[in-house]
Amino acid sequence: MGSKVRLGVIGLGAQGGAYADYLAEGKVTNMVLGAICDIDSAKKSVASEKFPSIPFYDNYIEMLESGAVDAIVTCVPHYVHPEMAIEALKRDIHALVEKPAGVYTKQVKEMNDFAATKPELTFGIMFNQRTNPLYQKLKNLIDSGEIGSIRRTNWMITTWWRPQGYYDQGAWRATWEGEGGGVLVNQAPHQIDLLQWICGMPKKVYSNVKYGFQRNIAVEDEVTALLDYGNGATGVFVTCTHDLIGTDRFEILGDNGKIVVDDSKKITIKRLAKPESEMSATMSMQDVAKIFMGGNTEELFTEEVLEFESVWGEQHIAVLENFAANIIDGTPLIANGADGINGVALANAIHLSSWLDKEVELPIDEEVYLAELNKKIEAEKRNPIKS
């Protein structure tokens, strides 16, 4: 391999097109556009016009065997990410999968297990939010014990407003067969990944999910999930695609303080002067009344505010550069492909709890999940919501 990684982009849609542009414009260090693949013949003329010197394939296996690429990125419907990654790794080609890693944990596990047999190859996932300086800082604050042990997490992320026209763009969108879910598999996988990356995986999940609540679709557009971390700590995760105004607020309460993230731009850290349990044991009601009736709260906690600027596209480029660096010189991956299973497992648990109408334990039974998903696919075939 030369000094630069030749990336094959599979799927020249919005995301694949953006990656091809970044590469063609020389925005990604140590990586160039090696080839493009798309099964839609209309994309061939788009590619030949924009990237005339780049080979185009309508069959990804042919592209993998062409010698034109060292690595691939899968910008295709979620169901086929694992299959494409496995075929690439089989041929000693590095694989970067888009989020989510797949639709259900069984297929993601097969991909991870196969990737483990090829440790010399680079296997990554496009969790670009992990390169976001705000979330890196947040993870560092939690990992370093800045606010002590977590007691509660609460993330309301409803900034995904999508009109009906968005769902009507393609027959596969917002269907069980084509996409495998709604907001949980399409819009919110980054937050589901960040939640478990920063706060850990819950032990149990109980959810209330609405399917086609405000949109004419078969899949979920409204989610409220209650998380149980198994040590007394709990969490709530709320997301939807019908809130035009939208809220993005992530709170983490710990023994020694609270961190609040607003709009993925601002972190407010409130550090208690002493652990909460100590205050509870030593303060009288009179002390408390004095403070809360207009007294000085600085005796109780200090406040620090950190502001972040984030430019769209930079984080995707950062993942591509990190992926190339891992291939070239072994720089550690920000997002190892094997990590993708955690977010899928959490999304699967949220779905399954609502389908079975009960609390589910993690890891869930993947055979039960797949059987229930297949029931949804069959029902959809018999009675399609979108003609």
Automatic annotation (TrEMBL):
Residues 135-259 form the GFO/IDH/MocA-like oxidoreductase domain. GO terms for molecular function: nucleotide binding. Residues 6-119 form the Gfo/Idh/MocA-like oxidoreductase N-terminal domain. Gene3D superfamilies: Dihydrodipicolinate Reductase, domain 2 (3.30.360.10), NAD(P)-binding Rossmann-like Domain (3.40.50.720). This is Gfo/Idh/MocA family oxidoreductase. It comes from Niallia taxi.
